[in-house]
Amino acid sequence: MDERKQRILQAIVQDYIESAEPVGSRTIARRHDLGVSPATIRNEMADLEMLGYLEHIHTSSGRIPSSKGYRFYVDDLLPSKPLEEEEKALIDKWYMERVRRIDEVFQETARIISHVTKNVSLVLAPQMTQAAFRCLQFLPLDERRAIAVIMTDAGFIENKIVPIPDGAAFEDFQRMALVINGCLAGHTLDAISPAVMKTIREEIGDESLFEAAQEVIHRSLDTGKRERLYLGGTSEILSQPEFHDVEKVKEILLMFEEEQLLKDILHAHLGEGLKVTIGKENEVRGMQECSLMTATYHLDGELLGTIAVLGPTRMEYGKAMTLLNYMNGHLADVVKKFRW
Amino acid sequence: MDERKQRILQAIVQDYIESAEPVGSRTIARRHDLGVSPATIRNEMADLEMLGYLEHIHTSSGRIPSSKGYRFYVDDLLPSKPLEEEEKALIDKWYMERVRRIDEVFQETARIISHVTKNVSLVLAPQMTQAAFRCLQFLPLDERRAIAVIMTDAGFIENKIVPIPDGAAFEDFQRMALVINGCLAGHTLDAISPAVMKTIREEIGDESLFEAAQEVIHRSLDTGKRERLYLGGTSEILSQPEFHDVEKVKEILLMFEEEQLLKDILHAHLGEGLKVTIGKENEVRGMQECSLMTATYHLDGELLGTIAVLGPTRMEYGKAMTLLNYMNGHLADVVKKFRW
DNA sequence: TGTTAGCACTCTTTCCAGTTGAGTGCTAAA
DNA sequence: TTTAGCACTCAACTGGAAAGAGTGCTAACA
Questions:
Q1: pLDDT of B256-286, one tens digit each?
Q2: Cβ of residue B244 near strand C, that is under 7 Å?
């Protein structure tokens, strides 16, 4: 793979991303100053096809990049350009204007990403399991019920109604809260071991009270695992010529409805930094003609969540990468602002 | 509009709903036992077109119903049939299997409606403004902050972090909670008047404390107004031949992204019972080739929210109406089960 | 007088053949 | 090694012909 081949591949990928039409040797020669004639380019293209970087619909059509071609382009040929200052300012402005509560941060992030990249965006919001348990408190509701309020370090508060077992009083619950807080404070929720639970059981003593406690803790774990997913710009993707076929649109919309599937996909990329999965590299049916770019964002070293761009393989990788890299670092600042 | 015309109109609408093709006199004569020849039907069709119930694409095409035609069909010709017992059982099963928390009730309702009708469903979940304020409590968070927990009769609990003003202590907040609970208990949130606020101000005495209280109350009002909207089956609509054109799909998907617009539309129908808005009767651009069927559900006489079916004008009105009527009565029961 | 059969007419859809144009692959010359 | 030239391929477009569905009108019929 000599340098000229690389330049030609780069030219083809860029032209194809722009035009969505198979590109021919003549077009490349005219639009890019490679200093060689179309015939030479044709020879190189034949080689590139042999090597698996390009594809051919039929004998007399131009070339389009294969998944392998995009992969090489993304890994080695992508011209990097930082985000414009004014774009950064605009993004800050959007956050300022439209976000009032912490969960709106993610909604707005999804909006921004889809708006800038003209593709679908996905934002997986922090899961409580990664955040440390902070404290649990009970509030009296009526004679037979109490409200459990559970807080974590990441700024999330959950609540649940618990029935007070016969023979117990609200005061027992308050005592129980002390025990639980003593044992669990600082633990991440998925680090709560059976041994710790056993200690709690012994300290509480009463079996029916412990069952209530267990339910609360179980619930907080359960809620924690329920990561939230925000989708943006599902209609943007329809502007792309590859989605002019309604059947394909349907397939992808159907995928968007399967929230758990999307969460699992994003979850699998958690902690991997910026990663691009191109075309057939995607295992999920319905995404084989798409590329997915994911990035994980952090806050003070603690894993927070995943942001992603989903578009046709012919997406503007450079732009998407630039934006995700920026949001990656920026999102932590925004979250901090809307934290406690 | 004699009876024969009505039967012919009914036959045309039904056939068109089924086939999505303009229907001709011969088809009607063959498929429906009207006892007259195609020629007679042609004459009647010409009359119906004159009266505005039918439309004509070009000289030699069959007829399709106009908005007026659908309107007459829905109002006067719709054959009513109750939901099958087994369908009811299936719906109950779905709720049982998939719903764990109160907000999942609405998500699942949307799923069920879209699944049964093969159209898009919209569910506007209860707004707190309609629910009565139950009580407010504070929990200590640290020296300078407290957590406010607000509960309403409808089973919703919201929380918010409030800073404790300099010079005040957590105990002042507890005193404040007593005052607020005394003044607001039983009020619906939108019935909290300036006069009541003034009383609270006087009873609290301290200005900075009152400001904190005001913020909490304002926040609970604010959250209350944020009705939640659940969408289901956006991909279903693509199976309909009228959405084979990607431009139309895009237009409607774009509408789905404007959550506030959808909320406003559903909100406008709140309290009107079962209502059908057909084709051009819809004022919103992008919905002019669709019909929207809405129904409001109640719980113990208290307004809860709106459920709706959105589909092409050629939707199966009978089925949708049957289902909405059933869900209408049924949803209250389900909500009750998942309430406190 | 309402109903029906017959027929001419309209318009869409489908098919086919011919043409155009973009693009390739190969060969031979520079 | 590069390039010009040329034959070849294939998709996309064009125009016309034929088929088919359906209408509207007229005249006959019960």
A1: 999 889 999 998 888 888 999 999 999 998 8
A2: no
Q: How far is CA B13 from the centre of its chain?
A: 26
Q: Which residues of B touch A253 (CB under 8 A)?
A: 234-235, 238
Spacing of B5 CA from D20 C1' in Å? 28
Q: Which of the 8 DSSP states describes residue A63?
A: E
Determine the distance in angstroms separating the CA of A194 from the nearest CA of chain B, rounded to an integer: 25
Say if the Cβ atoms of B234 and A243 lie within 8 Å.
no
List the single residue in B149, B232, B250 with the smallest CB-CB distance to A149. Answer: B149
Terminal Cα-to-Cα distance of chain B (whole angstroms): 54
8 Å CB contact between B243 and A238? no
CB of B260 lies under 7 Å from some atom of strand D: no
User: Among B239, B244, B246, whose Cβ lies nearest the Cβ of A238?
Assistant: B246
Q: What is the pLDDT of residue B282?
A: 93
Handedness of CA B175, B176, B179, B184 (dihedral sign): negative
Contact indicator for A161, A137 with CB cutoff of 8 Å: no
- Where residue A224 falls among pLDDT bands split at 50, 70, 90? low
C-alpha angle with apex B174: B169 to B180, nearest 5 degrees? 125
How is residue B132 annotated by DSSP?
Answer: B
In this predicted structure, the answer to whether residue B104 has a pLDDT above a threshold of 70 is yes
State the DSSP H helix or E strand holding residue A216, giving kind and residue range, or none if neither.
helix A207-225
The nearest CA of chain A is from the CA of B157 a distance in Å of 7
Contact B254 A243 (CB under 8 A): no
Ordered DSSP codes for A121-153: EEEE---GGGSBEEEEEEEEEETTEEEEEEEET
Partners of A157 in the β-ladder: A151
Residue B225 in contact with partner chain A when CB distance is under 8 A: no
Q: Which of the nucleotides lies closest to A56 (Cα–C1')?
A: C24
Higher pLDDT, A306 or A337: A306
Nearest to A243 among B147, B235, B246 (CB): B246
pLDDT at B137 over 90: no
pLDDT per residue as tens digits for the range B172-207:
888 888 888 888 887 877 778 888 888 889 988 888
Nearest to A226 by CA among A189, A271, A275: A189
CA–CA distance, B111 with B89 (Å, rounded to integer): 16
For residues B28 and B146, give the distance between their C-alpha atoms in angstroms, rounded to a whole number: 72
- A163-203, pLDDT tens digit by residue? 888 888 889 988 988 888 888 887 877 778 888 888 889 98
Among A304, A338, A329, smallest CA distance to A103 is for A338
Joined tokens for residue B327: 């869900």
Q: Is the pLDDT of residue A89 over 90?
A: yes
**Is there contact between B39 and strand D, defined as CB under 7 Å from any strand atom?**
yes
The per-residue pLDDT for B215 is 80
B340, pLDDT greater than 60: no
Chain A residue with the nearest C-alpha to that of B241: A246
Using one digit for the tens of pLDDT, what is the confidence trace for A75-86? 999 988 888 999
Task: Identify the CA nearest to A268 among candidates A278, A282, A255, A280.
Answer: A282
Confidence label for A221 from pLDDT (cuts 50, 70 and 90) = low
Nucleotide nearest to B34 (CA to C1'): C3
This prediction's pTM: 0.80
